[in-house]
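Q: What residues go here?
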């Protein structure tokens, strides 16, 4: 059902993150669209006979960009702790930790939490052909993180946010901080 002239309450009911930030809400929609394209490329690339490496490589490239964007969105939300219910904030913190373990090796070429390089003589991700998936964290780790898992986890957390979980707007979180230096983590 399309609402012709929806009220603010109807808009927030349908898309709760808009009550936190119009811009961030839009970025979440972009990330979800990227996730759909990544999954489609994995499905089609790994299902093709012969395997369509170009589609799998496209999925990997989009996954790199998705990871950077998803981390920044979740980091921004975590910085605005008082804008969210404690339950959602806890979910966001867990998601941020998972995203960090993927982002560090891909974006900073460092092992998470250490100033130790991830070697450059490796592929950007492992290919899990059986599960039509990418293994996207540090390739030297023995516990791999699945692209499908992290995409699903992001979607699950974002989809679980209700209007009652949004306690304030993003802009108002800055007024509550004692030091508004704007430093990023």
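A:
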């Amino acid at each position: 059902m399309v609402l012709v002239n929806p009220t603010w309450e109807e808009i927030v009911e349908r898309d709760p993150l808009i009550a936190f930030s119009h811009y961030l809400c839009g970025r979440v929609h972009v990330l979800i669209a990227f996730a759909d394209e990544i999954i489609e490329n994995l499905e089609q690339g790994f299902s093709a006979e012969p395997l369509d490496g170009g589609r799998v490589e496209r999925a990997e490239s989009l996954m790199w960009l998705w990871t950077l964007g998803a981390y920044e969105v979740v980091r921004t939300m975590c910085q605005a702790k008082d804008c969210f219910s404690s339950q959602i904030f806890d979910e966001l913190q867990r998601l941020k930790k998972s995203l960090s373990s993927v982002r560090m090796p891909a974006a900073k070429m460092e092992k998470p939490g250490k100033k130790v390089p991830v070697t450059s003589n490796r592929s950007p991700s492992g290919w899990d052909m059986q599960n039509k998936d990418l293994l996207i964290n540090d390739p030297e780790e023995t516990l791999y993180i699945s692209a499908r898992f992290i995409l699903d986890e992001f979607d699950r957390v974002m989809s679980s946010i209700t209007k009652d979980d949004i306690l304030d707007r993003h802009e108002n979180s800055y007024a509550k901080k004692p030091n508004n230096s704007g430093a990023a983590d």
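A: Context that may help when evaluating the design: The helical segments are 8-14, 22-47, 53-79, 86-108, 147-160, 170-175. Confidence is low (pLDDT under 50) at residues 180-184.
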